[in-house]
Specification:
It is a single chain. The chain is α/β, with parallel strands linked by helices. The chain has helices spanning 17-29, 49-63, 78-87, 109-122, 133-136, 142-151, 166-175, 190-195, 210-221, 226-235, 237-243, 250-259, 276-290; strands at residues 2-4, 34-37, 69-72, 96-100, 127-131, 156-161, 181-184, 200-203. Strand 6 (156-161), helix 7 (166-175) and strand 7 form a beta-alpha-beta unit.
Length: 293
């Protein structure tokens, strides 16, 4: 169970490093298996290069090797991404990178293959592919994923599959080479994808409920206990939909703020905070989990 880390901001929209450190301790102590920093949930497009470097260093230092750290390193300019992979200070202290399919310019499958081939040759760390066509505008097809996995077995080690297409996920799982991990990119589909042979999730909800969601994922991964995960999965159903009602990470920040007043719900434009109605619904939905803690 990996967590797609959110970025806390102060009311004047500076990075709240005190809250970030408290959040990291909460996640590690909650039993998460790894942390993914500087992904979509981190509002990375609104962060400056200097801010990204400071977050990277803060996460590496605070986690202190207690769990693996994956760093989001993607882009729609292959040349610029290659430069970042070789010049980002402290990147070598992380354990892997998560690299999204190039967005906006909508490359062909051959373009995606060549892009990630260059990433694999350049990256100092193992690479997890990230397929999320709802944000990038284009889907990385199964043949492309398998081609990359087979040609770069020592460097391209997995995929965060967030297409929402379970047939596609099942084909990747069936055809993948040994050692290639398939993570769900959707909390609501994680239990089902694991049932098809997937390896876990990179989660948004895990930011708020690391212990509870990790329990569900680990039960799902245990073939003898998989059925025991189903009622836990159903318990999360209200949160699954509410978290994304007003966009991500507006929902998870509202939820974290309801649980921990020290975690602000502020976002940088063009994103805006969750509505009061959504925030109240999230606070009510999470009560049954926090009352058990």
């Amino acid at each position: 169970m990996g967590v797609a880390l959110s970025t806390p901001f102060t009311p004047d929209l500076e990075i709240d490093f005190e809250a970030l450190n408290r959040h990291l301790d909460y996640l590690v102590e909650g039993g998460v298996d790894f942390i993914v920093a500087l992904g979509t949930t981190a509002e990375t497009p609104t962060l400056s290069e200097e801010e990204k470097h400071k977050i990277l260093q803060t996460v590496i230092d605070r986690v202190g090797g207690r769990v693996p750290v994956v760093i989001g390193m993607g882009g729609n300019s292959t040349a610029a991404l290659k430069k970042s992979l070789t010049s980002t200070p402290g990147l070598e202290k992380a354990d892997a990178i998560l690299s999204v399919v190039p967005y906006y310019n909508k490359p062909t499958q051959e373009g995606m293959y060549r892009h990630f081939a260059e990433v694999a040759r350049t990256s100092p760390l193992p690479v997890i592919l990230y397929n999320i066509p709802g944000r990038t505008g284009v889907n990385m097809e199964v043949d492309t994923v398998i081609r990359l996995a087979e040609e770069f077995p020592d460097k391209i080690v997995g995929i965060k599959e967030a297409s929402g297409n379970m047939d596609q996920a099942a084909l990747i799982i069936t055809r993948r080479p040994e050692g290639f991990a398939v993570f769900s990119g959707d909390d609501s589909l994680a239990h089902t994808m694991i049932g098809l042979g997937g390896d876990g999730v990179i989660s948004v909800l895990g930011n708020a409920l690391p212990r509870q969601f990790t329990e569900m994922i680990r039960l799902s991964l245990d073939t003898e206990l998989h059925d025991r995960a189903r009622p836990l999965h159903r318990e999360f159903s209200a949160l699954y939909s509410l978290l994304f009602k007003d966009g991500n990470p507006a929902g998870i920040k509202a939820l974290l703020n309801a649980m921990f007043p020290w975690y602000g719900k502020h976002l940088r434009l063009p994103l805006v905070e969750a509505t009061e109605a959504t925030s109240q619904a999230l606070a009510q939905a999470v009560e049954k989990f926090t009352s058990k803690a």
